[in-house]
Amino acid sequence: MLHVRSIWNGAISFGLVSIPIKLVNATESHSISFRQIHTEDMGRIRYRKVCELEDREVSTAEIGKGYEDADGTIIPITDDDLAHLPLPTAKTIEIVAFVPTDRIDPLQMDAAYYLAAGGAPAAKPYTLLREAFKRSQKVAIAKFALRGRERLGMLRVVGDAIALHGLLWPDEVRAPEGLAPDTKVTVNDKELDLADALMDTLGEIDLEDLHDEYREALEEVVAAKAAGEAPPEAPEPAKTGKVLDLMAALEKSVKAAKESRGEEAEAEVRQMPARKSARSTPKQAGGKKSTSTAKKTPAKKTTAKTAKSTQGTKKTTTSKSTATKKTAAKKTAAKKATSRKRTA
Fold first, then answer.
1. Hey, is 343 helix, strand or coil?
2. Are 197 and 141 in the same domain?
3. Which portions of the chain have biased composition (kind: Basic and acidic residues) (predicted)?
């Protein structure tokens, strides 16, 4: 990773161990930002910071922080006041517990940071904490202060570094009450089997293969307009039939997923209970042939019967053909005899 400026310097504290660290952003945004403009002349629209008492624009150096009291009184707060907060986590990431990873609700996950060792003295305790994380397969719950407020965090190992994930406080996560369907619905085993099959067919994916297609499309539009060309047109959305039956929708989804992966779409999803039918048993999932031989003998008998029937048909046809020829010959001979008599 290229050199990134630290946004906070402090220490990790657990027990009597203190590790000097530097906080570095672990993520970055690649989104395309726009400017507000005056559409008539393309002039930039800017927000100016104006003092409402003097009615003039002020510079950044003249701007500070203040807390507005209930009666409207402004109480100034300086950076020095914030630097000397009576709070143990003002400059310390204080580890309060080590817990299994599954104890952390993903809903609480917030911004992520890397913790870089703060100089040579931090190398030994930093490595010790990292290896302890690896061997215990646990994460640490910690408290720290950043950007004007105390936060909850989780420490874990990423590669050879220690990462800090900001966590929302438990009371900041809303309960999902009233969001689930209030209608009583029954899901049968066949529907679950098809849902499982769809999940298996879609399978896993390497997240490295995913990318922001919206940003790429937006870059194409910007490039086209910059070159004085018409922006590319959006492709026609794929037409899909309206499916009202859940089973049919699942089956079509499995088929589409298989086709997109180049698999045989007609292969069965999974082994289902055999239905009573006059047709032969279909192939099992995965295209494997059935090892059952119970129906081989009837098939042979049917073939033999068909062969006998064919032979019988051939004999009947041949005998009919021969009889027809004999009858025609007799008629011809009779006509010739009649002709001779008339001539005499």
1. helix
2. no
3. 255-269
List the pLDDT tens digit at each of the 344 positions of the chain: 546 788 889 899 888 888 999 999 898 888 888 999 999 999 999 999 999 999 999 999 999 999 999 999 999 999 888 777 777 677 889 999 999 999 999 999 999 999 999 989 899 999 999 999 999 999 999 999 887 788 999 999 999 999 999 999 999 999 999 888 888 989 899 889 888 888 888 777 888 888 888 888 889 899 998 999 988 887 777 666 565 577 787 788 888 877 777 765 444 444 444 444 444 444 444 444 444 444 444 444 444 444 444 444 444 444 444 444 444 544 444 444 444 444 44
Beta-carbon neighbour count of residue 250 at 10 Å? 21
Residue 226, exposed/middle/buried by CB under 10 A (0-12, 13-18, 19+)?
exposed
Residues 6+ apart with CB under 8 A from 126: 19, 21, 117, 162
Range of the domain at 125: 8-172
pTM of the predicted protein model: 0.61
Structure tokens, 227: 């070159």
Which ranges constitute the DSSP H helices of 90-206?
A: 123-136, 189-202
Q: H-helix or E-strand containing 314?
A: helix 296-343
Both 84 and 36 in one domain: the answer is: yes
User: How many structural domains comprise the chain?
Assistant: 2
> Domain check: are 157 and 253 in the same one?
no
Tell me what percent of the chain is helix, strand and coil, each rounded to the nearest 5: 40, 20, 40
Angle at 26 between CA 22 and CA 28, to 5 degrees: 130
CB of 115 closer than 8 Å to CB of 155:
yes
Residues 143, 69: one domain? yes
260 and 161 within one domain: no
Query: In sequence order, what are the residues at sequence separation of 6 or more whose Cβ sits closer than 8 angstroms to the Cβ of residue 166?
Result: 109, 110, 111, 112, 113, 146, 151, 152, 153
Total number of residues shown for the chain: 344
Answer yes or no: do 195 and 138 share one domain: no
Same structural domain for residues 33 and 62?
yes
